[in-house]
Each structure stands twice: as C-alpha cells, then as structure tokens.
C-alpha cells in the first residue's frame, strides 16, 4: 500500500478523521490535494501551486529515526537543511541514529513512508515517540505538511500547529 488517501482507512487514524478533529478544535488550515509526493524534490515540483506569494512559510522534511535502544524520534526540519545523522544523534544526546522501518513507522506514528509529518504525533505521543523541530519553525508564519497521507497538504499557521501539538500532549525539543 502506498501513503495516499486511497488507503487512509487502513491507518490507525484516517486523514479525514484528523482533519475533522482539527475542525472540531477550531484550528484553521488551508487544504490542498495533489499527486502523491514522496520526496522533497516531488514537493518542490508543485510548491508554486500551493504557496501564497509573500507568505513567510516553512516547507519541511521529516525523518522517522531510531536509536540503538530502540527509542523512536520524529525530526522535522526545513526542507533544504543538510542533515548528518551521526551529528544529529550527538546533538540530540541519543547516540547513533538510523531510519526506522516502514512497519515501525506504521506502528509508532500510524503512517506510511512518504506521509511523515508533525501531524503523525497524534499517534506518536501515546507510543512514546520524541519530537524534534527545526527552530526555523519559530520564525515561520505558516507551515506546510501532510495530514497523514501524501496526496494532501495542509498549510497551518505556526500558532495553530503549536496549539495542536500542545492539545495532543506533544513536547517539542527545538533544534538549532
């Protein structure tokens, strides 16, 4: 199965249910549908269709990582930020990191590869996943991310994203 909305009903929480919850909580977002985006390069190919001119927006990439002690991490970074996993492990104080498998991604974040997003912390928090976010997000007005599937994108004001994360009990560790 791919990470598109066609298979959202096989996830612990569907994209539709997540969006309904955001609506119920009064958290605003702009919603876009598009072909499945699997990589930063895929996203860059369509971002002009989504972006609002003059908007101070953060476009992100997300890494699902594990350490040797089998602890799980979601790391959200500005999409063009270079990353060295060894240096990142040291910065996080967790040692060596590696990418988590597709099965563990589904188990711990409730999503499939290609749909990794801060929104997945709604499943990740109860699973003990730790969340790290690029400090660049603190300067952005709007953050673009997938709502648990990779053929949809939402643009959410930073304050609403932070409210969402607080509402689900997600602590953020900011990365410089």
UniProtKB/TrEMBL annotation:
Keywords per UniProt: Aminoacyl-tRNA synthetase, Ligase
Pfam families hit by this protein: tRNA_edit (PF04073)
InterPro entries documented for this protein: ProX/PRXD1, YbaK/aa-tRNA-synt-asso_dom_sf, YbaK/aa-tRNA-synth-assoc-dom
Domain YbaK/aminoacyl-tRNA synthetase-associated: start-end pairs: 34-164
Single GO molecular function: aminoacyl-tRNA ligase activity
UniProt key word Ligase: yes
UniProt similarity note: Belongs to the PRORSD1 family.
Name of this chain's protein: Prolyl-tRNA synthetase associated domain-containing protein
Taxonomic source organism: Ruegeria sp. PrR005
Origin organism lineage: Bacteria, Pseudomonadati, Pseudomonadota, Alphaproteobacteria, Rhodobacterales
